[in-house]
Amino acid sequence: MNHNLQPKIKLNNGLLIPQLGLGVWKTSLNETRQMVKDALENDYVLIDTAKQYGNEEAVGRGIQEGLAATNRRRNSVFLTTKIFNGDQGNYDKLRTAFNEQLQKLHTNYVDLLLLHWPVNDKYNESWRALQDIYADGQAKAIGVCNFNVERMMDLLDHAKVAPAVNQIEFNPLIHQPEIVDFCREKGIQLEAWSPLGNGRLLSNTTITKIAEHHHKTPAQVILRWEVQQGFIILSKTTHPQRMRENAKIFDFELSADEMEQINQLDQEKHAIWYDKFKWSGNPDGVDDYIAKPGAF
Q1: Does residue 177 have a pLDDT over 70?
Q2: Model confidence pLDDT, tens digit, residues 221-238
Q3: What domains are there in the chain, each with its CATH number?
Q4: CB 177 within 8 A of CB 190
Q5: CB of 38 within 8 A of CB of 30?
Q6: Closest by alpha carbon to 46, among 209, 241, 246?
Q7: Could you say which of 44, 53, 123, 134 is catalytic?
Q8: Is 53 among the catalytic positions?
Q9: Is the pLDDT score of 131 beyond 90?
Q10: Shortest CA distance to 234 belongs to which of 122, 112, 135, 126?
Q11: Which helix (H) or strand (E) segment is 167 a member of?
């Protein structure tokens, strides 16, 4: 058992979530199934997917195979998925679509269910459905992704249950301080997607010097910088060796000076962003796109 992966964070409803997980965006079905199985075998227990990724069924298969290989039970895995933008805004449609997601994932609940984007004029009605999904036990916690301060304030004004998580793009090149500070003030846990900035910083001189000092890889330094700020981080790799490397970030600490050196790299630039999305319902079909990663 790799104890490096044991740190957990308590959400605002008391649920414990692992601080390091595996994301599966933009991977084929066979890759997804194998990487999820490999992740469980390497003691990753937080798996993050979404309907839009088009690989929920592969995640479900990978979890089943990983559980069988490790003699674990379903409750040892923290599974996150997200509501597709095209399913938002209609209570009945959303709940029907989510039940179909559960079937693909081969489970009767998820540990965390997120709204993938704050679609204007739809996210409050969508949140009403998520609150009932939570009340019915089909999700142990509910949250959002990519919400800024304005939309989070609006959601909180209408919500009976506050989001447990806001999953945002966060890495040394983009810090989004306004929403980070707001969520911390409201007790909403922050989760980082694209924590390595799409690999753009792995050869950065500041990062590599700090990595050499600690005898760590640049990726490990970046992930450690995020962990020390209290973020949950979702790294993505199809290679078991890199999974193991990414997990070895809890046995060293960055100094205040090193943290500040990395802070100075901020450019507030997104690595990946839907420029046409603009928070609306369906510009140019962006809202209706689901990845088609191919057959098994």
Answers
A1: yes
A2: 999 999 999 999 998 888
A3: 16-199 (3.20.20.100)
A4: no
A5: no
A6: 246
A7: 53
A8: yes
A9: yes
A10: 112
A11: strand 165-169
